Amino acid sequence: MKIIVLAGGLSPERQVSLVSGQEICRALRGLGHRAALVDMFLGLEAYQGKPEDIFDAPDGLCTREEITSRAPDLAAVRASRRDRSSSLFGPGVLEVCRLADAVFLGLHGECGEDGRIQAAFDLMGIPYTGSGHLGSGMAMNKAVTKQVMEHAGIPTLPWRELTYRAEDIPRLTAELPLPAAVKAINGGSSLGLALPDTREELAAALEEMLSYGGHVIVERKVSGRDLTVGVLGEEYLPAVEMISRNGGYFDYAAKYQAGQSLEVCPAPITPEQQKTMGELALKLHRALDLRVYSRTDFILDGEGRVWCLEINTLPGMTPGSLLPKEAAAVGMTYPELCQKILDLSLT
Predict the structure, then answer these.
(1) Which residues, at least 6 apart from 126, have a Cβ–Cβ distance to it below 8 Å?
(2) Is residue 249 very low, low, confident or very high in pLDDT (cuts 50, 70, 90)?
(3) Are strands 261-264 and 235-236 parallel, antiparallel or unpaired?
(4) What pTM was computed for the model?
C-alpha cells in the first residue's frame, strides 16, 4: 500500500509525534508498504521530487528525531516555515495525502487528536487510521470526557471546569480545594499539568496554565499507582504501571527520557483489578464512539479503588511508549501492531 505517515504538526507534543512517525514509517516499510513520513506543518518544503514519487523516497524521508526533556519551541517551528500561510497543513501535504491509499496518523496532542484533521480528511474522502472526528474531539476535551464518564457510570475524581484570566487567580487560589490536579483542557503527554499541594503552588499553577489558554479542569488529587490500559479493536490489553524514578509524578521527562521511569507490563495487580480497568477502558472507548485503538489512564488509590483519569485516541508509538509495550505483552511485535491498526482502520 501507499501510505503517508503524518506526524509533527504544531502542538507541544510535536517531537513525540515525529519520533512516533519515524518508528511507524520504518515498521510499515519493513512490512513491504511504500510509506513516507510527512511533517504536517512543515510539509514538503525540503522535498525535491515529484509528489507521486514520495512513496519511494529513500528511507521514507525518515530522519533521526529525538525527544528532549523540554517541549519544543513552537514559535520557532512556525517561524522556520518558508511558506507563511496560516494553514496547519504545510506545502504539498494534502496533495500527497490524496495520492495515498491511507494516511497513518502519527500525530499527538491538540494538533491531530482533536478531530479537526479527521474532519478535513472525511470531507476530502481520505482514509486514515484511528477514530473519527467527533469521538476524537470529545476525547481531547477533558471536561467533555469527564461528563461522558459520569453519564456512563465510570468512576472519576471530583472535578471543576474553569475559564479564567490573570485577575481571577487570587480569588481562585483562595477558594479551590487542595491538593489538586490542574490540567489544561486539551493537554497531553503530561504537558499542561500541575499538581499543587499549597496555595502558593496553586497560584503558580494557574499562572502557568494561562500559557495554555486559561481553560482548565481542576480535579481532586489522590495518591496512588499510575496505570494505563490500551484498547485494540474490541479487546483490552494488559495494564502497564508507570513508576517515575525521580520520585515525582509521571511527567513529560519521565515518559520520554531513557532511564527516567520504570514501566511494568503486565502490571503487578490482581486479575480482578485488571478486569475492572480493562472493562472501564472499553466502556469509555465505546461511550465516546472511538474506533480501532485508544489508551485510558487510571489511578489505583491506597484503598484499592480505581479512578479513571482520561483517554488518548492516538497513543504514543515511540520506542518508550506504553501501547507497544502492552501489545508486546500479548505477543504482538511493533510492526504487527502497526499493521493491525491499519487493518482495523480500513475495514
Answers:
(1) 97, 98, 100, 103
(2) low
(3) unpaired
(4) 0.91
Bridge partner residues of 261 (DSSP): 244
DSSP string across 302-323: TTS-EEEEEEESS---STT-HH
Gap between the Cα atoms of 262 and 294, Å rounded: 21
CB 132 within 8 A of CB 118: yes
Distance CA 26, CA 22 (A): 6
pLDDT in tens, 83-99: 889 899 999 999 999 99
Place of cell 485577575: 167
What is the per-residue pLDDT across 106-131, written as a single tens digit (0 to 9) for each?
999 888 999 999 999 999 999 999 99
> Which grid coordinates belong to 32?
513491504
- Residue showing cell 482514509: 127
Tell me the pLDDT tens digit for each residue of 2-47.
999 999 999 888 999 999 999 999 999 999 999 999 999 999 999 9
Is 7 within 8 Å of 103 (Cβ atoms)? no
Write the CA distances from 205 to 11, 243, 248, integer angstroms: 20, 23, 16
**Nearest-5° Cα angle at 25, 22 to 28:** 150
Cell of 23: 518508528
What is the DSSP secondary structure assignment for residue 168, as one 8-state letter? G
Q: Based on C-alpha coordinates, what's the Rg of the chain?
A: 20
Residue ranges of alpha helices (H) inside 153-288 are 169-175, 199-209, 252-256, 271-287
Nearest to 322 by CA among 283, 268, 264: 264
Pairwise CA distance, residues 49 & 89, whole Å: 19
Alpha-carbon distance of 146 to 228, in angstroms, equals 17
Are 284 and 149 in contact by the 8 Å Cβ rule? The answer is yes
Set out the domains of the chain in order of their start, with CATH numbers.
2-128 (3.40.50.20), 139-154+223-345 (3.30.470.20), 159-220 (3.30.1490.20)
SS3 250: coil
Tally of CB atoms within 10 A around 284: 24
CA proximity to 135, closest of 113, 110, 109 = 113
